[in-house]
Amino acid sequence: MRVEHLTRRYGTATVVDDVSFAVGRSEVLGLLGPNGAGKTTTIEILEGLRVPTAGAVRVLGRDPRRGGRRLRNEVGVVTQAVGTDATLTVAELVRLHASFYRPRRAAEEVIREVGLRDSAAMRVGRLSGGQRRRLDLALALVGFPSVLFLDEPTTGLDPGARRRTWAVIERLRRSGLAIVLTSHYLDEVQRLADRVVVLSRGRVVGEGPPGHLSGPTAPTATISFRLGGPVDLPPGPWESVSRAGGILVVETREPVEAARILLAWAAEARVDLDELEIRQPSLEEEYLRLTSHPRQP
Ligand SMILES: Nc1ncnc2c1ncn2[C@@H]1O[C@H](COP(=O)(O)OP(=O)(O)OP(=O)(O)O)[C@@H](O)[C@H]1O
Q1: Helices marked H in 83-126 — which ranges?
Q2: How is the chain split into domains, by residue range?
Q3: Which residue ranges does the record assign to the ABC transporter domain (predicted)?
Q4: Which ranges of 114-231 does DSSP label H, i.e. alpha helix?
Q5: How would CATH label the architecture of 1-74+146-211?
Q6: In testing the pocket of ligand 1, which one of 10, 182, 203 has its CB within 8 Å of the most ligand atoms?
Q7: How many angstroms is it from 43 CA to the middle of ligand 1?
């Protein structure tokens, strides 16, 4: 999938503004951003449901609006709250969807894959919210997709079911799918995504692997250790130095250099670095940093 200088305007509002990224085979791209950032618009353009104002998108080398039946067969979509006939059973609905595809996967195999085997005979209207999300995933998988769009795939799932869905997504990635994942659960994105694109007000404000997102300001790592008594730190690339209880907390944008200086200083000054911890920012911290300082248009 390729998105090049994509722009979408509604009247005078630019809701997607010069966005570019690519997603390859066996790759999960996390598309993040606050409400209204332009994620759904971008994805719906990739799905061929909306038209770009400027720029271009390609899915499996084709324009999604002109790819026709062949392209639709290769694209799986898990959106929120798809309306269906609630009186059908899980197995009937998956078989019905499978009938639209050629080649297609066996309904039973897909139902097993998403962990719904015990509910195959249950009517769709009686499923719990979490079972419904897993059914949505099954419906996206019946047609052997090469590309998969996952919009909030684990909303409403209990922790065990979330992990089972993560395992399914990891298997799909290993089998060669290109996957775009949107989720407000940043632990999920940190766990699953190879790369992340953060949108804010329609623009890309950060991108890269989770833990190493580029952006207008470099991420801040934290080094902390327990203090025996008062200390004088040597000069170093510290952004800030603070105390919380008996713990000294140093923030730095150069964790390797900072750690080297601290260790040399501690050895010379005979300071025990008890409970020493060096922590890279979590995806959540990176996300908040990037989206609370959006680049002005
Ligand atoms: N058909 C439309 N006409 C006018 N404005 C629209 C239309 N569709 C979307 N927008 C606006 O475009 C902006 C981006 O919306 P979009 O749904 O892409 O955001 P999002 O990142 O998916 O948000 P969320 O996390 O809430 O789903 C919003 O301000 C929205 O109001």
Answers
A1: 90-98, 107-113
A2: 1-74+146-211, 82-144, 221-279
A3: 1-226
A4: 129-141, 159-174, 186-192
A5: 3-Layer(aba) Sandwich (3.40)
A6: 10
A7: 11
